[in-house]
Amino acid sequence: MSSTVVTRNVVVRNPQGLHARPADMLVREANRHQAEIMLEKDGYRADCKSILSLLTLGAACGTEMSLMAEGIDAEQAVTLIAELFDSGFHELE
């Protein structure tokens, strides 16, 4: 595993927050990567490869979180997951 941690701030933009459907999208994307990927909110870290872990964040619309990844494809993982947040998990259309 790489010693470099890639970090980016993300904001939940979809009106209903990080509920089951967007959490599932996030888990599916995270599982495409070898990197360890975490979301941090208010000091609590959730594993992006676990839907239950993500849902415990209780991330409503407007919630700001830190997205962190460590591993050989960490940069790509952070970029693609940040795009999901930026698109509102396709619920803004």
What's the short version?
The protein is of the alpha+beta class and 93 residues long.
Please tell me about this protein's structure.
Helices cover 31% and strands 26% of the residues. The protein starts with a strand and ends in a 7-residue tail after the last helix. α1 packs antiparallel against α3. The protein has a 4-stranded antiparallel β-sheet with strand order 1-4-2-3. The chain has 93 residues and is α+β, with helices and mostly antiparallel strands. The chain is globular and about 35 Å long. The longest helix is centred in the last third of the chain and has 13 residues.
Radius of gyration: 12 Å
Residue ranges: pLDDT <50 for 5 or more in a row?
none
Q: CATH superfamily, please? A: HPr-like
Q: Specify the number of helices.
A: 3
Please list the strands of the largest sheet in the order they lie side by side: 1-4-2-3
Number of strands: 4
Give the biggest beta sheet. 4 strands, antiparallel
- Topology-level CATH name: Histidine-containing Protein, Chain: A
- Which percent band covers the strand fraction? 25-35%
**Whole-number tally of structural domains:** 1
Q: Look at the helices and sheets and give the structural class.
A: alpha+beta
CATH architecture: 2-Layer Sandwich
